[in-house]
Amino acid sequence: MRSVFVDTFCCEWLKKRRSLGAWLIVVGALFTPTIIVVVRLIRHAQLPALYANPEFWTSLWRSSWESMAIFFVPMAVILATSLVVQIEVRNNAWKQVHALPLEPITIFFAKLAVIVLMLAQFFVLFDLGIYLSALLPSLLVSGVPYPQAPLPLRSFLADTAIYFVDCLPIVAAQYSMSLRFNNFLAPIGIGFLAWIGALAALSWQHARLVPYAYTMLDYLKDNPAARSVASTSGMHVYAMSWFVLFTLAGYLLFAAKAHKG
Amino acid sequence: MPCLETIDLCHRYAPDEAILHGIALAVPEGSVYGFLGPNGAGKTTTLRLVLGLIRKQRGAISIFGRSLDTHRVEILKRVGSLIESPSLYEHLTAQENLALLQRIHRAPRTRIGAVLELVGLAGTCGKRVGQFSLGMKQRLGIAAAMLHRPALLILDEPTNGLDPNGIIEMRDLIVALNREEGTTILVSSHLLAEIERFVTHVGIVHRGRLLFQGTLDALRRERKPAAPVALHTADDRHALRVLADAGVDAHAGENGIVMPAMPPPRIAAINRRLVEQGVDVHAIGSAGGDLESIFMNLIGSRAA
Question: What's the whole-model pTM score?
């Protein structure tokens, strides 16, 4: 027997088809790899030496994640989460959603599951983009071989999973705010301010307590030149705790709404 | 047992802003119930409460004999609704919009084509709803409401945005659904003339109070026995002078001259006198006998 949750999830997944949020995931994930490909094609003379470097993959991985971890990932999560919720607001559809034979908990978690899956899709596309940014120059520029260094796939996937966990508090906070405010700008504005606050808190010793800071802390923790002095031990436990806390708070606000659509 | 029943339904948006005062709706099973009232009377608030879209403050709501508080999901499986403007995802096609609901209601996939055919939108295959006209969106909203063959259909001002032909089609559709599938239909409107041709029961709400509830025939019996007489002439000023000379207490109204109630022989005598005095009489007869006037009288007298 089909589960009501699975059916509701499939509906929510269909709703995002051709939506701005869905496009943002694709464009946001492939933006940095595209820039890398373009830059490498322009500076193609340096490519043979670069591709022969035994640290090729690690170097590519870090340069790809630099802008992503600090800026693009938090921004993409803030925007995509708000855009997915806005689908209902913009189409005046909350009243229909709430008039369906569904419990509020099903509606809430089906939509959240779609956003979380979109986030996973974002990271898969980004990883694929990084691989293509290495592959394409070797195919397009003569004399540039496929990278000699072995691809540390397992390590990259583990890093990706960690970045995914880092984003979950932002997803839950933005989702809860987007459900609370009909105005699209309110959750985005608050999210942007929270991101600036997280950026400012990077040099704070307790930065691991800041829910919007985890992708940045994860990127900076192995970088000796970084200005971050924060301890990152147990950071992912904090991230998961924020995620659970924001999700529960969001659900309580959603279920207790007096006017539904 | 009514299909839908509300008891002492009260609602206020602010402490000093009471919207509904003890609404007691009783929508009989198998009926087409016209829920009438001017704009701002409380129709949409009542329907939103009935669907659980607004948290109930006071009173009770039961549908299919069960309390909405305790059997909400079970009840909504058998209810279709269109509240105010249709809720449609404009970046999706009509089929995709219906596919969302078909999955939730677990209706057969063939119903999507069937309801689109029924509302005249079968030929819109790849077109996104954002490119639809207002009338097309309204039709699609109705298709969505009846996709799962609900036992109760709640339509709030369903003819909004429809052209005259669309209004006739909508009326025929409601009648067919009621007769062929036995669907109980609760339809709100601010125009009695628009729905009087197909409703079996009427509820009239004004300023949050239910002024009348009953069959259409019972509403017709509300016709005032002593209705004033309306007169339409080619020259109302001349006619008023003639009537004053005849001792008739007439005055100019919004739509012609209004005279006090009088027996038919007296009306005939006045008509003769006007003609003799050179006034062309276009129409003369009892005013306030049509349903629209009864509706307006109810609103005017009982709510005062």
Answer: 0.86
